[in-house]
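TASK: fixed-backbone design
INPUT:
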């Protein structure tokens, strides 16, 4: 399948949403937690909140710490992928996590690869967010290096999104990988890890499947939903002797494996074959050549938000998606607006970009609703000038005026002055959150490389997810709140921009504003019994 064909058929239109289930049985939702029965379980410490870094400090100096103990691994996962709250309303309760997920369905699974980590047997572990624990899937039987090495492998259970969202679910799974990679990068920065130690390890999908054990058919009994390989990142990559992708692979291939995957959903009423086709079409078949990303060389704006001197761990832990915004709230400051946009620029040694295999190719189109001193309207943030050939193909009436007071390196342009609240909400499947906020935006991706390298489709979504994660966290630091928006009418947005060819496509929307809190919902902390 041509991946652009998948993209085309999973567009939402006002009169025809992408194909999804005609009805949903809310009483029979899939189990939100994968587990592997029969594995030894290692409970992880819950000490992440003690990490001293402030939010603002994450943009000053990179730390110099390494993650070498089980305690470090516990902190890293607690601040990236763990549960962060249980919620209750009426008779139902549900968990929320540090990382966001489309529909709170959490298709992303994480595998910890550890060698020489104090307190952990060398091996491959599956992370259990419900327990904040590791399941030992594979014990390494040989040792490759004396120095500690740590890596994380990410996979997706596509069914976990597909049962609810149907064909469009493959896109959401990819967004979620991007959010998860970014969450890990922010957690590592919070723990003071040297930013140069974190980077993706370029291996093929088959290799990643082998080293996470998700290709072991015998461990997935009939009905146990498959996982698909996504991305491998090292957290010790700058250290001499740190294990490479090939090293991990040979350890896993010679290791001794244990554990049987659970069945998440006994009844699959619908089949969405196109998701498997899209996964096949975007497989990484050969190790990708190292990318040469264009980074922003101007130092990042240091956050001055009202919570910027809070601990970064606190900002990470409190992150939530806004359900509604306060329509009566005043404008946010320009400083806040520029800081949020600035942090979406890819910088070599800033989170979350060190964890991403692709950081270029996405530009932002911003609906400014309420920003002090800026006229409401449509603005463009050129994150990647090389991918901005679309400029002369857009609507002729766009003025492309630089914005007074905006830092020059931002590449921020006003295209059109107009009230855009209703338009933004309409484009986002009529969701009020896109119009009632201070600003919302669409992420326009350069799709021109996909014919030669279709796997880049997934990586562009990961990048979009990571941009979303920076906005989520920076919004919290400014006393605001954000929400990722995966439900939008694709071609409405392209029409608005005046783009008709398929070379550029919007992959994600996001909105930021002053949130309203639903006080009917009760919240309590997770892992109470462990504290
Ligand atoms: C990729 C993605 C797409 C999302 N799309 C929407 C959306 O269209 N509308 C919405 O209200 N929330 C959306 N959300 C927010 C999720 O519903 C939210 O992350 C989830 O319920 C978990 O809540 P939390 O973010 O507070 O942890 C999206 C989140 C992600 C990561």
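OUTPUT:
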């Amino acid at each position: 399948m041509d991946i652009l064909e998948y993209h085309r058929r999973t567009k939402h239109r006002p009169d025809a949403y992408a194909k999804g289930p005609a009805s949903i049985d809310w009483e029979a939702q899939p189990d939100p937690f994968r587990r592997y029965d029969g594995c030894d379980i290692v409970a992880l410490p819950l000490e992440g909140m003690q990490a001293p870094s402030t939010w603002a400090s994450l943009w000053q100096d990179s730390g110099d710490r390494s993650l070498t103990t089980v305690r470090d691994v516990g902190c890293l996962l607690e601040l990236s992928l763990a549960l962060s709250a249980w919620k209750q309303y009426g008779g139902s309760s549900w968990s929320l996590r540090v990382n966001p997920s489309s529909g709170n369905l959490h298709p992303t699974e994480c595998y910890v690869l550890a060698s020489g980590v104090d307190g952990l047997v060398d091996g491959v572990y599956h992370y259990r967010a419900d327990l904040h624990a590791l399941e030992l899937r594979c014990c390494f039987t040989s040792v490759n290096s004396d120095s500690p090495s740590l890596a994380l492998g990410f996979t997706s259970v596509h069914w976990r999104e597909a049962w609810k969202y149907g064909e469009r679910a493959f896109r959401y799974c990819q967004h979620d990988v991007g959010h998860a990679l970014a969450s890990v990068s922010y957690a590592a920065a919070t723990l003071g890890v040297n930013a140069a130690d974190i980077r993706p390890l370029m291996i093929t999908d088959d290799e990643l499947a082998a080293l996470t054990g998700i290709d072991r058919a015998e461990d997935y009994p009939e009905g146990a939903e498959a996982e698909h390989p996504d991305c491998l990142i090292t957290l010790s990559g700058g250290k001499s002797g740190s294990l490479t992708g090939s090293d991990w692979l040979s350890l896993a291939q010679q290791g001794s494996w244990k554990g049987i995957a659970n069945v998440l959903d006994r009844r699959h009423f619908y089949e969405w074959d196109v998701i498997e086709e899209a996964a096949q079409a975007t497989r990484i078949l050969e190790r990708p050549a190292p990318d040469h990303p264009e980074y922003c060389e101007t130092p990042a704006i240091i956050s001055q938000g009202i919570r910027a001197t809070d601990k970064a761990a606190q900002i990470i832990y409190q992150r939530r998606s806004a359900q509604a915004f306060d329509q009566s709230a005043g404008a946010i400051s320009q400083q806040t607006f520029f800081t949020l946009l600035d942090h979406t620029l890819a910088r070599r040694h800033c989170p979350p970009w060190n964890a991403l295999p692709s950081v270029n190719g996405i530009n932002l189109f911003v609906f400014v609703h309420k920003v002090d001193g800026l006229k409401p309207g449509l603005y463009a943030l050129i994150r990647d000038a090389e991918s901005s050939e679309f400029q002369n193909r857009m609507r002729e009436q766009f003025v492309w005026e630089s914005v007074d007071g905006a830092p020059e390196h931002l590449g921020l342009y006003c295209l059109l002055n107009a009230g855009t609240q209703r338009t933004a909400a309409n484009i986002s499947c009529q969701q009020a959150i896109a119009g009632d906020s201070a600003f919302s935006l669409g992420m326009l991706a350069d799709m021109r490389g996909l014919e030669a390298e279709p796997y880049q489709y997934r990586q562009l979504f990961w990048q979009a997810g990571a941009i979303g994660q920076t906005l989520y966290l920076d919004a919290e630091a400014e006393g605001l709140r954000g929400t990722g928006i995966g439900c939008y009418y694709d071609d409405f947005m392209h029409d608005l921009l005046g783009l008709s060819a398929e070379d550029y496509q919007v992959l994600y929307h996001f909105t930021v504003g002053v949130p309203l809190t639903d006080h009917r919902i009760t919240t309590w902390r997770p892992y109470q019994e462990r504290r």
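COMMENT: The chain has a mean pLDDT of 96.
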